[in-house]
Design goal:
- The chain has 13 helices and eleven strands.
- It is 45% helix and 15% strand.
- The protein has 323 residues and is of the alpha/beta class.
- The structure holds adenosine-5'-diphosphate and magnesium ion (MG).
- The site of magnesium ion has 4 residues, from helix 3.
Length: 323
């Protein structure tokens, strides 16, 4: 594997996305890391902050098949998964595949649909297979979902159950434009009204095949020293011991941290994980898996603050082997 070329390919993807999406390089790199780790990402923030735009742009720039589902209160599981229809002339049932039969699934505003529909999606995310009337169909790799949702305080939403939050590798938020210049840039790029969809001219910068090879490299070619594994394990365990936490991170949270860190190492042009790669994702990989004790949740304590505190108290390993 030519590390320099891999790093350059990742830079090109990020650059392409940033031609349309105005925001932090690091946020875009994190979304890319989730994609390279074949992990699902949840973009959570107030309406109108570019969540759909970012997800669409990412999907469009990596040459894979993608489809989008707009979640609404009346969306049914069959609208996502597919259904069998009777064909009179053949005298048999035919499978009409739903939008989940794709590589990248854009699940927009997940929390606007009721639990039954949500769980149909979340099952597919977990199992990477679809069962329709007793018949199971495996989804082709790569398969990952990019979900968006507005914060649960918004009216007319059905919050995702904690168990289902756990299935997202990362939870990220786009946030407001950081500077006046960025705010201006968002407007400047849309002065031309005719371009109603800013992703219209988007072209993939790498092929699906190349993307798949990068995914495989994350899995096979990025080394993780045992000291780093211990670092992750210690952070994860501390989330379970914290006095304000009712339920701490699952082991899946630790795995998520590991996977995302390996992908980020590759994005940064390295074939080994550093403690800094881990630190980059501590909040995004763990905070959505914590359940606070009720009294502290009511006091307004936030999961992110607790994870931040824990990460700050676990000593960062200095002597790790790069290979
Ligand atoms: N950071 C951003 N960069 C570029 N355009 C943005 C950004 N944030 C919002 N917009 C524009 O604002 C509109 C709303 O964005 P959208 O992605 O639909 O928001 P959300 O899905 O978060 O509700 C879109 O037309 C989008 O082009
Ligand atoms: Mg949206």
């Amino acid at each position: 594997m030519d590390l320099q070329r891999v790093g350059e390919a990742c830079d090109r993807i990020v650059e392409e996305i940033c031609k349309i999406y105005v925001g932090d390089d690091l946020l875009v790199r994190k979304v890319l890391a989730a994609a390279l780790a074949n992990g699902h990402v949840l973009l959570e923030d107030n309406p109108g902050l570019g969540k759909t735009l970012l997800a669409k742009t990412m999907a469009g720039s990596i040459g894979c098949k993608f489809s989008r589902i707009q979640f609404t209160p009346d969306l049914l599981p069959a609208d996502i998964l597919g259904t069998k229809v009777w064909r009179q002339k053949d005298g048999s049932f035919e499978l009409l595949k739903g939008p989940v039969f794709t590589n990248i699934l854009l699940a927009d505003e997940i929390n606007r649909s009721p639990p039954k529909t949500q769980s149909a999606l979340l099952e597919v995310m977990e199992e990477r297979q679809v069962t329709i009337e007793g018949e199971t169909h495996r989804l082709a790799a790569p398969f990952f979902a990019m979900g968006t949702q507005n914060p649960i305080e918004y009216e007319g939403t059905y919050p995702l159950p904690e168990a289902q939050m756990d299935r997202f590798l990362l939870r990220l938020s786009t946030g407001y434009a950081e500077t006046l210049e960025r705010e201006r840039l968002i407007l400047a790029r849309r002065v031309d009204w005719k371009k109603d969809d800013p992703t219209m001219d988007l072209k993939p910068v790498i092929t699906a095949q190349r993307f798949r090879s990068l995914q495989k490299a994350v899995e096979n070619d990025v080394y993780v020293d045992d000291v780093i594994l211990r670092y992750i394990a210690e952070i994860v365990r501390k989330t379970r011991e914290h006095p304000q936490v009712d339920v701490g991170s699952s082991p899946r949270g630790g795995l998520a941290l590991l996977k995302a860190s390996r992908a980020m190492a590759l994005i940064r042009g390295r074939d080994f994980v550093t403690p800094d790669d881990v630190k980059t994702f501590v909040l995004d990989a763990l905070s959505h898996r914590l359940i606070l004790r009720l009294e502290h949740a009511l006091e307004g304590v936030r999961e992110r603050d607790i994870v931040k505190e824990i990460a700050g108290n676990v000593p960062v390993p200095k002597d790790f082997r790069p290979r």
